[in-house]
Amino acid sequence: MGEETEPSLIYGLELQGRSLAPITADTENISFMVGTQSLKSDNFVYIVTLDEDTGLLHKRILKYPAGEVWSLNPNPTDPNLFLSTYGEKSQDSWKKKAAVFRIPESKNNSSNDEGNLDSVDIEVQLDEITGKNEPVGAWYQPNEASKFCLIAGNSVNYLQLQESGPTKIWEAEHSVRGQTKIETGAWNPHRHCHQVSSVSGSQVMTWDTRTGDKAWTLNVASGSNIRSMDYNPNKQYYLATGGDDGSLIIWDYRAPSEPLTTVREHSHWLWSVRYNSFHDQLILSAGSDCRVQLHSQASLSSEPLRQSLEDDDVQEKILDDGIVQTFFDHEDSVYTAEWSSADPWTFASLSYDGRLVISHVPRSVKYRILNIDT
Amino acid sequence: AEQLSESVRLLQELGNPADNLIQTFLAHEAVKLDKSLEVLRAQVHLCQDPTKVNADSVVLMDSLEFIDEACNGFVPILADTATLFYQLFADHQGGEVILNDWITEHLEEYLNIVKTRLSLDKEERESVILVRALDRFYKKLSAATRNLPGLDTCQASLNVVLAVTEACVDATAANMEAELRENVLAARQAIAAPRTRMPPPAEGAVNSGGGAVAPPGAATSGINLIEMVNSLQDQIVDSLKTALGRLKMFTDPELTFSVKSGFRSRFSRDLIWNSIFFKQFWFIRDTCHKFTGDVTVPPALLLLLSRTCLDLHVSTIPFLATYTQDEFGLSESPNLSKICTSMASTSQLLLERYVQVESGDLSVLLGKSVEARDWLSSVEPRSVRAVMKRIVEDVNLIDSQVGQLYEEGNKKPRSGESTRRLGGASRARSVFSNYGNLDSSLATNIQKLFSERIDFFTPVKPTKVSVLTLIIKLGLKTLLECVRLKTFSKYGLQQIQVDCHYLQLHLWKFVQDEDVVHHLLDEIMYSAVLRSLHQPPVLMEASVVEVICDKV
Fold first, then answer.
1. What's the ipTM?
2. What global pTM score does this model have?
3. Which chain A residues touch B if contact means CB-CB below 8 Å?
4. Hey, how many other C-beta atoms are within 10 angstroms of the C-beta on B417?
């Protein structure tokens, strides 16, 4: 490939998994949490930290006794709390539930043998809110950790966590003909998180956080289901969606009838799309074709051009649009790929077979973005 | 003219300054010229807008009549004036220049009018006359101005001829484009038209798909794609041949302008090759290409156009290039590589899009069937789910459609040890019955050792097995993804087992390498087992599964 890339680090969980999240509250260390999804054995949450000096991966394994992990969403300010949806198995039945979990302080022994493992405990059960609906996911409000959005079935709920428990601020319904439930949700981080979106079928519906009223809708013209969406953290009105036809689409939601660009680089479903929060030219996508793709959409980013180092009068492109690199480290569907919240150049991806991979943006691209002459 | 000469000579003798006399003389002649130009202009306006009220009841002339009018009016006046001028002012210094300037000025006007009028002849039936009109125009003007010193009208009049020819060529090209659009639209409508399901073609039916006869009971779509492809090809070829035939008239050696090198080279190089030949094929390519982005297009049209582009790339374009060369006696062969490569890539894109659309439709069927069902409270399976039978039917349909247009392709030979039935069943038994005993990760690793990784990335080839293999792979991959999102009770799992076995029995024959189907179905079963509430999972007896699948 000719690129000087640090090699990816691979770590195998012993079980299937589809949930991965960066520990947002930890801005010093490159750390992620991963959950296993097994109906057969006990399940675990791994806190994985990359030591930048040694290049080694430090793991803390925690028992997750509640069931199998479906999703993980860490608290934006407290690294020991996270929202999670899980499958609770009993003798002859299975139910999907959601709760707030707490990670206990780590005791000084760093052993990871099973007898000595800590457990994550349910801090707040969210059964009452979800009721009969099957929980899809829960996301903390990025600027206000006491509030979060919980999606179950076709209902979008905005909740406040108080001493007495979770209270519903408002509830809205997003139902689309032919869909049994909402697929996912995302916060619009701009203007004090004034909007939150839900995805069902090929439609994104966005709600005004203050009132619970519908703010705007967006539809993918081909009718292909959307699996993932992410707002551009640095450029207001812009967002990206990834769908079943393998395409990554970038939108300006003020003009939702016509996408800004469509990129089709996955040959099956695109399960996860994430903007790099430091440099929004870079977008990560992962799919069930076992590929992780690093894209540049610099022309649609908050900083497409900058002053040339050589000539003050000239504006030059920072990066060309297109695929920066394709990562072939997985052999099974990759359901999530997430950027580290501490380091702009590192990201993690998880495939269903339990393979966790930590990878990096190619060095030349990093220098290019940082405008370092090499 | 007599009177005029007389007057001028008298004035000269009287000592009138020559300059004044010349001006007056020319002005006088100009009036006559302008009158004739007016008549011509009126014709142009009438031709441009035949519905406009015609105050003077002027009759519209055709091109030949128009040129005749010019050659009886404007041209002789010009010639005579020149002759007279030299008689009267022979020894005036700089007279030549003045005359030529005057002539050029009026000539420009004349040429513009002729160009405008003749460019309006866009209909095919007018071409014969147009060519003769052009010839007469060129001949007469040359003859009239040949002997005038310092004046060369050849280039200017040749430019008019070229401009008119170009207008005719453009009109021809536009006609071809309109024809193509109509033909493609007709094909699209024929494909989309509702039809009754017809019985499969008879055993001996001639079919470019070779041995792809649909199994009894399966319906074909009833559209005859191979006929439509051939018909579209013929239409494209005929359209070009007709256009070339029409334009060949311009190269008739009897015409005075056609033998001029200034005309000849421009005509063949730019007009025939660029404006007709290449332009048309780029248009065809662009039209086809647009369909790759059209979400409403019926998939069979994508297939049809993909085959069309392929044929164009491989044989039709080279054939027509040679034909064109021969028809016009051109020595230089055109460079076809760019257009051919582009046609080939458009053909590929259309085929890929076809795969995407068809696998997308299958995926929606499979996805909805898994998503909408409650797998936790299933009853013991008694039959294969209806959606599975529908999937097999749809795959059969796709197979017969693709089989009409593309050759079979190579299949990996089956291992000779057992009949199809037995082979499938024994495979099922060996993988699944051991799940209770094996550790899950060990099972995955063993499975991976014995099977190749499924690749979704090799570009689809223009063969039936390649297309079907990719469509089936993508459809089964969707089933896998959907199964992983559910949780299964004992009977729910067994229903999946039955469905997978059914698919295994019926899908292997469409693909390039049947192991691919086995492997994907194994993975689906494996994922279903992982999602089973019962651990270890309780599977149905293989013989019972066989019986259920046989009932269908």
1. 0.93
2. 0.85
3. 14-16, 38-40, 87, 89, 92-94, 178, 180, 221-224, 244-245, 267-269, 288-289, 331, 333, 352-354
4. 8
